[in-house]
Recover the amino acids of this structure.
């Protein structure tokens, strides 16, 4: 039997409302909200009472883009489902949607089963899966229908990484046509990988081997071109499109234009593009390798355009693309050849706090913070209102957040299984204090009280589009 819990005296913030309310939790779900101090709220009795006076009471974060234990370039992401979901909980995220991978020549089902095996019994918080489609053929297309029926309702394709995950325009169109029929959502890594490979080869031939050249060859125009092409293919197929990890202002402009035309086109960005830049990639002594991810970090002037896109809803979601590789022994594989640096950065623990800093800095409102970090990703990927909000009937995934606490981000104190922080030394205002997942305490006043296996697999409905 689960414990009845009352959270008293906090400011409840959702994507649509802010209200001083007490929250009653029963059987792992939100049972009721009532104005703090009201007769209704005072009448509630519970075994556990949490005092949230002076704090925010917010929905648990939904990070719709993580890569735990992902194999890449001869190594694999440093976080397991156990360590990665524990770190997510520390950062106020209570649901992740990770990516199962189809091997070329293999079935979607084989990839999905392999990821289920990695995650089951190991997660501190709830999780779902997207499916990476690496090999579009008749069998794959039929399998897409079956996966949608059982709650894997989104499929990722890559215009980048020829020879690994790459799909050509014909394969992309076929998958989009199938998604248009079965209600699935195509997620696109939009970079012109064929052209990028030419630029990589030319750069290396010139002796340009340092990490900063990773950013120079993966040009923002090639992100914009691929974004435009993906939009047009989706339009031909009559399918919705979700573009992942948008980093360039030119790509935002393509999304904005498509949305102005009324197309069901959506975009995600990540904290690294809002807070970091090519200055980090250019750090000396190979330190820039820590910041190698794809799409790459851009010059600082792109940051303002990304924040603007979040304000105007041309970008709807902020996920992390959490795919950590240690500097020692993993990122170092690319010494002398930037193209061999494993692509990916840690961040699942930092997202909610960094976005709250965006509130403090005046980039977004408090409600927009919750919208882009909790409600929109839940809606986009068929988890709402079970996840992403505080309302009667929703899962009791709740974070008590101290908006005044100050912290300094550091690898010394983070909980991700990686030997550096991308935000080392950054001062932030706001910090997670207590986290409940389905009514169970996972973080209790800055102590981990959760356990591997609490988190359960969560099938998803089709996308509840946000226009």
């Amino acid at each position: 039997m689960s414990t009845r819990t009352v959270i008293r005296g906090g400011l409840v913030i959702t994507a649509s409302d802010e209200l001083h309310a007490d929250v009653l939790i029963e059987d792992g779900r939100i049972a009721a909200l009532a104005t703090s101090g009201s007769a209704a709220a005072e009448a509630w009795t519970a075994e556990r009472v949490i005092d949230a006076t002076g704090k925010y009471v917010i929905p648990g974060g939904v990070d719709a883009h993580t890569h735990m234990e992902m194999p890449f370039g001869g190594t694999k992401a440093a976080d397991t489902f156990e360590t990665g979901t524990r770190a997510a909980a520390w950062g106020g995220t209570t649901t992740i949607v990770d990516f199962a991978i189809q091997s070329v020549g293999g079935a979607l089902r084989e990839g999905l089963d392999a990821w289920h095996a990695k995650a089951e019994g190991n997660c501190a918080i709830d999780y779902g899966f997207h499916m990476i489609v690496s090999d579009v053929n008749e069998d794959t297309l039929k399998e897409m229908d079956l996966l949608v029926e059982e709650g894997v309702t989104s499929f990722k394709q890559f215009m980048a990484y020829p020879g690994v995950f790459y799909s050509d325009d014909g394969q992309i169109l076929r998958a989009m046509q199938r998604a248009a029929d079965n209600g699935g959502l195509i997620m696109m890594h939009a970079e012109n990988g064929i052209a990028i490979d030419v630029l990589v080869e030319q750069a290396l031939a010139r002796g340009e081997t340092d990490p900063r050249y990773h950013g120079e060859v993966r040009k923002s125009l090639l992100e914009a071109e691929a974004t435009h092409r993906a939009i047009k293919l989706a339009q031909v197929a009559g399918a919705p499109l979700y573009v992942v990890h948008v980093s360039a202002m030119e790509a935002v402009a393509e999304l904005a234009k498509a949305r102005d035309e009324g197309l069901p086109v959506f975009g995600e960005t990540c904290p690294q593009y809002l807070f970091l830049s090519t200055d980090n990639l250019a750090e000396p002594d190979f330190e820039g390798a820590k910041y190698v991810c794809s799409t790459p970090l851009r010059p600082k002037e792109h940051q303002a355009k990304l924040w603007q896109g979040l304000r105007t809803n041309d970008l709807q979601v902020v996920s992390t693309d959490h795919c950590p590789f240690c500097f020692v022994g993993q990122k170092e594989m690319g010494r002398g050849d930037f193209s061999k640096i494993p692509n990916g950065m840690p961040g699942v623990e930092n997202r909610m706090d960094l976005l709250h800093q965006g509130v403090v800095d005046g980039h977004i409102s408090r409600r927009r913070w919750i919208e882009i970090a909790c409600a929109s990703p839940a809606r986009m990927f068929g988890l709402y209102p079970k996840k992403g909000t505080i309302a009667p009937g929703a899962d009791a995934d709740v974070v008590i957040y101290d908006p005044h606490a100050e912290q300094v981000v550091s690898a010394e104190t983070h909980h991700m299984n990686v030997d550096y922080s991308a935000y080392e030394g950054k001062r932030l205002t706001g910090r997670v204090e207590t986290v409940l997942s389905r009514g169970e305490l996972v973080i209790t006043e800055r102590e981990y009280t959760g356990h591997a296996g609490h988190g359960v697999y969560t099938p998803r409905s089709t996308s509840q589009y946000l226009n």
Notes: The mean pLDDT is 97. The CA atoms of residues 123 and 434 lie 18 Å apart.
